Amino acid sequence: MSKVTIYRFELYDITTDGNRKSHRWATREVIERLRGTVLEDTATEVDASAVASDIQGMTARDFNPHPRTGFQRQVMP
Hints:
Blueprint: E1 3-13, E2 18-21, H1 28-33, E3 37-47
Antiparallel strand pairs: 1-2, 1-3
């Protein structure tokens, strides 16, 4: 399987007149196209299938690239 590097990022939010962190992760190319700010220290390598959601190059909302950490969402056998 091929790997890609994804990042957390911030976008300008017109309703708050400030930057806010996105609920998605994305590749650098997509973030730059959106004119967002890449949060460099969040670089994470994942399987390319993780960014094949409804928006090419972005993950699903609230994606967790570190499934072994954070809130447990399923029971593993």
